[in-house]
Amino acid sequence: MTATVTTRVDRLEQLLGDPWQPDAPLTNDVILAADERSEMSTRGEELLDEFGFGAEFVPVAYGGRLDRLDDFLTLSRAVWRRDPTLGLGHGFASFIAGVNIWAAGTPGQCRRAAGLLLGNAKLSSVYHELEHGNDFSRIEVSARPHGPDHLALHGRKAIITNVGRASALVVLARTSAEPGSRSISQILVDRAALPADGITDLPRYPTVGMRGLMLAGVDFDGYRVPAGAVLGEPGRGIEVALRSFQLTRTAMPAMAAGVLDTGLRATMRFTGDRRLYGRPVASLPAVQAELADAFTDLLIVDALAMSTARAIHALPEETVVAASATKFLGSRRLLDAMNRLSRVLGAHFYVRDGEYAIFQKLLRDLAPAGFGHAARVACLVTMLPQLPILARRAWANPPVDAPAAIYRRGADLPPLSFDALAVRTKGGDSLTGALHAAAEATAVADPRLHRLATAFVAELAALTESCATLEPRDLGPAAQPEALAVASRYATVLAASACLNVWRHERDDPFLGDPTWAVAALHRLARAGRLPVDPGLAATCRPALYIELAARFAGHRTFDLADRPLPV
Amino acid sequence: MNALRTYVTERVAYYLERDAATIETDMSLPDHGLDSVLALALCGDIEDHLGVRLDPTAVWDYPTIDALLTYLSGAVAEAKP
Fold first, then answer.
1. Chain B within 8 Å of A138 (Cβ-Cβ)?
2. Domain hosting residue B43, numbered range
C-alpha cells in the first residue's frame, strides 16, 4: 500500500467499524438483515456515500482519487470483506462502466461521468444479453442513425447490475450490421438527462447470492440518444472492452479476496469458541491444516492479483493474457477455499442466523466471482489463441525479468495509461520471465523452495511444447478440454511466479521474506497443477502458517499480503 | 507477393480448417467464419512469418485477404529501410 491509500483505508475502516461489534456503524446483523429482505444495505450505502467512495472510481485527472489500481483494490477489498453485495452494487458496477469511459471517452464524456460519480450517482455497464453470454461479438442490441443528430437503440439487455437506478449507462451496441470486429461500440447513455420514451425497465431477478443486488434487464424500443454518445470512434467497442477488461478481470478476485478474509475470521472465531471431544476445535490438527491452507490460498490470490494490477501500470503491453489468467485462477481458488472452510463450520455454515451467519451469505455472494463479469472458461478462451505467440516469442527465448515494483507493496509505479494497454499480446511475458530470476534466488535461500521453483520452470518449458501442438480448433470456443488445460496450467505458473517474486522482493519483511509461506504457496499450486513434488511438504509449513494466522486473528489484522490493522 | 498471398491464404485455411482452394480472397474473413480471437492469432503468425510488427487490429481493419495483402505490402516496405 502507498502512504496515500493507508490514510484513506484507515478512514474507511473507522467509518464502517468492526462488523462483529454490536455497536459498530455497519454490523454483520445489519448486513444480514438487508440480505434477508433482498435489499441493498441502506446503512452501508449511506456510509460509503459519506466516505465519498464514488471518487475512488474517478481518475485524479477528472477530480477523483483513482490513481493506482492496487490502491483502489485495497480500498474495495475493505468493502467486500464486509458485504460483497455492497462492494458490487454500490461500487464495482460503476467502476466497470467507468473504465470504458476513461479508456475511450472524450474529455467531455469523462467529465460528465466523473461529475455523476463524484456526486455519488451510479453508472451501469450494460453489456450482457442472455442469448450471447460472454460472446460480445454477436450481441444484437443495435444503435442505428435516427435523423441527422440521433441514434435509436433497439433490443434487450438482461441481468445487469443497477440498470434501473444508474444515472448513466454504458451500453454495448451494434453500430453496424456487418459481421466482424468493427461493428460494435459503447454508447454512453446519459439516462438521467434523456426523456424516458423507448426505454423500459424489466423486473428484478431473484438470485441465490448477492440477494440485495439490483439485477434487472432493460428493453430499448427506439430509445433516442445523441449521435455523439458513442464512446470513441464507432466500431471500436471490442478493443475498448479488451483494454478495460484487463482492469476489471484483475480486480474481481482481488476484491473478492476480502470474502475469504472474513470467511477465515468467522471460522477462526468458531474454532476458538467451540469445544468438541473435550477440547477446543481449534486444537484439532486437521482443522488447523484447513485454516492454514485457506490462509495460503488467500496469499496466493493476493500475490497474483496485486502483481497483475501493478503490471497494468508497469507493463501495460503484457497484461492482456495475465488479467484473464488472474480472474480464472483467483476466483476458483477463493471459491474452493471457502467451500473447504464451510466443512469446518459444519451446520454453522448452513444456518442463516447466529454468530457465524455471515459465512453462509459470503459463500453465496462469492459464487458470481466465478461466472460474473467473465465466466472462467471465457477467460481461458481469451488466453488460448495468444499462448502460442507467448510460447514462441517469450518462453522459448532468454527470460526477461519484471520490475521489482510489481511485487513490492507500496513501491512507485508509472501512472495508469489506457492507451498503452494491448488489445492482443505482443509476445512479451516478463511476469513468467521473472520466474527464472526468482528460481535462481531460491538456490542459495532454501532447498525446498528451490525444488519447487525448478519444477515450475520445467512446467513452463513443457507448456512451450504443448502450445506448439495446439490445433486451430483448440484456440477458440470449440477447444478440447486438454487445450483449455494448457491455459489453466499457464495461470498456475503465473501464480507461482507471483508468489516467488513477492518473496524475492519482500525479503526485508519478517513473514513475506521468509521462505515458509512461499513453499506452502508453491506446493499448493504444484499439487493443483499435478507437478511432481514431494506431497509431504505441506505438513512442514502448516504449523508456521497457522501460528501467523492465529497471531493476526488475535491482533485484528488482515490475512492478506498487506497485513493491515483492522478497527477494534 | 504471390508467395505472401499463398502463405496468408493457407494460414486462413488452416484456422478455418478448410482447403485453401475454397478461400475467396475478396470475401471478408468474418464471412468466412473466422472469429475475432482467431483473427488475432492469424495476425501473430503473419508477424512472425514476415518479421515485422503490425497494427494490433490489422485483421479487423483489413478484413479481406486482398485488403490485408495491400496493407502488408505497405508494412513490409516500411520495415525495410
1. no
2. 2-79
- Residue bearing cell 425497465: A201
> Taking an 8 Å Cβ-Cβ cutoff, which residues of chain B contact chain A?
14-17, 28-31, 35-41, 43-44, 48, 53, 56-57, 60-61, 63
Q: In this complex, which of B14, B31, B43 lies closest to A424 when CB atoms are compared?
A: B43
Distance CA B61, CA B48 (A): 19
List pLDDT tens digits, range A326-376: 999 999 999 999 999 999 998 888 889 899 999 999 999 999 888 887 888
Q: How far apart are CA A43 and CA A434, in angstroms?
A: 45
Domain of residue B36, CATH code: 1.10.1200.10
User: Which residues 175-194 of chain A have a CB within 8 Å of chain B?
Assistant: 178-182
Q: For residue B81, what pLDDT band results from cuts at 50, 70 and 90?
A: low
Q: Which residue has the cell 494491448?
A: A422
List, as one string, the DSSP characters of A389-440: HHIIIIITS---PPPGGGTSTT---PPP-TTTS-SS--S--HHHHHHHHHHH
Cell of A340: 473447504
> What is the per-residue DSSP string for A35-61?
HHTT---HHHHHHHHHHTGGGGGSBGG
Q: What is the C-alpha to C-alpha distance for residues B26 and B11, in angstroms, rounded to an integer?
A: 16
Residues 6 or more apart whose CB falls under 8 angstroms from that of A550 comprise: A268, A282
pLDDT in tens, A147-205: 999 999 999 999 999 999 999 999 999 999 887 788 999 999 999 999 999 999 999 99
How far apart CA A247 and CA A252 sit, in angstroms, is 9
CA distances from A196 to A29, A128, A224 (A): 38, 21, 9
Is B28 exposed, middle or buried, given 0-12, 13-18 or 19+ CB atoms closer than 10 A? middle
Comparing CA positions, the residue from A362, A196, A346 lying closest to residue A286 is: A346
DSSP A556: T
CA distances in angstroms from A405 to A2, A9, A122, A506, B49, listed in the order given: 12, 21, 33, 10, 35
* Total structural domains within chain B: 1
What is the DSSP secondary structure assignment for residue A88, as one 8-state letter? Answer: I
ipTM higher than threshold 0.90? yes
Measured distance CA(A56)–CA(A48) in Å, rounded: 11
Tell me whether A148 touches chain B (CB under 8 Å).
no
- Where does residue A202 rank: exposed (0-12), middle (13-18), buried (19+ CB within 10 A)? middle
* Domains of chain A listed by start with CATH number: 3-121 (1.10.540.10), 124-234 (2.40.110.10), 240-554 (1.20.140.10)
